[in-house]
């Protein structure tokens, strides 16, 4: 192994050619693509992407790995490595000095699982403040999270995260990746997901309200929606709106599709 993996940076080196092939195919790379890769690690994915695209910007937190990456890939003209924390690094500021590496259109990454939530928020923004920064995002994430991102209403995995992310992007499950595809194997299985950021149709009239509504609605998954939303509107008013929307008034949060959440929020917004 070229580098001893560090636990604190959630380092698990992907070893499966099959999984790498799937990630590359899902990203539908072309020579005009400008890629952001989070956590290139030993560069196993990076070296596959570089020849297919216009450029790759890699953001890697681990200084020792950065040295190795530069040694191995530093001679590639269309690769720029930035050392730092993807969550706090001022990407635009740093790229101001590197105009030929600005305006990434896709993200391709095997991300550190301990910061999946913050990375998703960084890439997609929030309901109230969508980021609208990328055309396509292909990520290797832990299966439990990936399943939530792609869950359909009424299923066990469908929750507040599903609604929030699916409001911001269409989400597709590409493939499962077993723990043994990595060194060292993580405790959990993984999946490749593809997210295509888009403006929800119809959009929420009051996105902040939708955000609060979803949070409250899923606060207690076993309770009926009208009980979870007591602090927001009366049970009678909610029953009335749900009937208007042809949604069973006995519904729980997980029974509503993303567009039904938006419709509910928009009805409440006009109260
Ligand atoms: N892409 C590589 C490594 C994935 S492991 C592969 O497929 O084999 C996750 C990588 O993210 C590690 O290289 C780790 O050092 C890096 N990392 C962890 N936290 C990070 C952060 N906050 N910002 C940028 N990179 C980070």
UniProtKB/TrEMBL annotation:
Q: What GO CC annotations are associated with the protein?
A: cytosol
Does Ligase count among this protein's keywords?
A: no
Q: What class of enzyme is it?
A: transferase
Q: Offer one Pfam family short name for this entry.
A: RrnaAD
User: Which classification does the entry list for the species?
Assistant: Bacteria, Bacillati, Cyanobacteriota, Cyanophyceae, Oscillatoriophycideae
**Domain Ribosomal RNA adenine methylase transferase N-terminal, which positions?**
19-199
For this entry, the protein name equals Ribosomal RNA small subunit methyltransferase A
Q: Where in the cell is it found?
A: Cytoplasm
The record ties this protein, via PROSITE patterns, to: RRNA_A_DIMETH (PS01131), SAM_RNA_A_N6_MT (PS51689)
Q: Which organism is it from?
A: Gomphosphaeria aponina SAG 52.96 = DSM 107014
Q: Which reaction does it catalyse?
A: adenosine(1518)/adenosine(1519) in 16S rRNA + 4 S-adenosyl-L-methionine = N(6)-dimethyladenosine(1518)/N(6)-dimethyladenosine(1519) in 16S rRNA + 4 S-adenosyl-L-homocysteine + 4 H(+)
Keyword tags: Cytoplasm, Methyltransferase, RNA-binding, rRNA processing, S-adenosyl-L-methionine, Transferase
């Amino acid at each position: 192994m070229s580098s001893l993996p560090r636990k604190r940076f959630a380092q698990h080196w992907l070893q499966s050619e099959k999984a790498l092939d799937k990630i590359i195919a899902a990203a539908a790379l072309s020579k005009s693509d400008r890629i952001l890769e989070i956590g290139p690690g030993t560069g196993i994915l990076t070296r596959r992407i570089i020849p297919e695209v216009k450029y790759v910007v890699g953001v890697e937190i681990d200084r020792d790995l950065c040295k190795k990456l530069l040694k191995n890939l530093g001679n590639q003209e269309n690769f720029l490595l930035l050392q730092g924390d993807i969550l706090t690094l001022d990407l635009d500021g740093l790229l101001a000095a590197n105009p030929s590496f600005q305006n990434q259109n896709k993200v391709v990454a095997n991300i550190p699982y301990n910061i999946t939530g913050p990375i998703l928020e960084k890439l997609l923004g929030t309901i109230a403040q969508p980021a609208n920064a990328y055309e396509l995002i292909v990520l290797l994430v832990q299966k439990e999270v990936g399943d939530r991102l792609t869950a359909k209403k009424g299923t066990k995995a469908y929750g507040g995260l599903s609604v929030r992310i699916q409001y911001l992007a269409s989400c597709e499950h590409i493939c499962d990746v077993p723990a043994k595809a990595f060194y060292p194997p993580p405790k959990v299985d993984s999946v490749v997901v593809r997210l295509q950021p888009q403006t929800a149709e119809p959009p929420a009239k009051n996105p902040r309200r939708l955000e609060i509504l979803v949070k409250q609605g899923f606060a207690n998954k076993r309770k009926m929606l009208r009980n979870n939303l007591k602090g927001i509107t009366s049970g009678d008013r909610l029953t009335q709106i749900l009937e208007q929307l042809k949604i069973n008034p006995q519904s729980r949060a997980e029974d509503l599709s993303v567009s039904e959440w938006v419709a509910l929020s928009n009805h409440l917004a006009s109260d």
